[in-house]
Amino acid sequence: MLARAPQQTIINFHGIGEPARTLEPGEAPFWLGAEQFGQVLDQIAAHPDRARFAITFDDSNISDLAIAVPELAKRGMTACFFVLTGRIGSPGSLDRSHIREMAAAGMGIGSHGIDHRDLSRLGGRDLRAELAASRAILEDVVQAKVETFSIPFGRYNAGVLAAIRRAGYGAAYTSDGGTARDSDFLRPRRSLRCDMDDAEFSAILSGQSSAAKRLRRLIGMSLKRLA
Ligand SMILES: [Zn+2]
Asked: Ranges for the NodB homology domain (predicted)?
């Protein structure tokens, strides 16, 4: 029997440092300070079971290349970066040469759609465009297959997942928390926020947080049943 891929905690980042574009409503807490970011990477690098962690970035901010890639490289780490193709080359966002440079540095490149839309609210044609057109653009940029998709705002339903599969992606990254295997289509992640305290960061990195969350969910479910 083949050994199964190990369960991984996938840590998701957004912007690092000072934003170089106007933020969307509610986006600010998802930007981490550069120092805070370095400390989280240090904790992952020092973890006794470092292979248990994967790292991703959403939104293709310029800080991906300016801050994240050098900090990852310094620690011998790689990550997957999910690009909004509608922002390629706009102020504060990665351009085509940045994305190629990151791919050449061994970083994974995936799609985050075109215009950062809530896919669960889109009709079939718009949904297909977000998935297929963004993939085609990225494959043209990196001259390689793009097989991973990160779902904007973590909002999805069965129709969205089916459309992601039909568009040819092999994996869909959500923001549901928990762990995933490399072989899973659905890959829940933990998004870090700057307003989390050290205890919360440590809990996520130790894996306690997902267990605690599962427990709270179970308790919530049985309370609902009793109601
Ligand atoms: Zn996003």
From this structure: 51-227
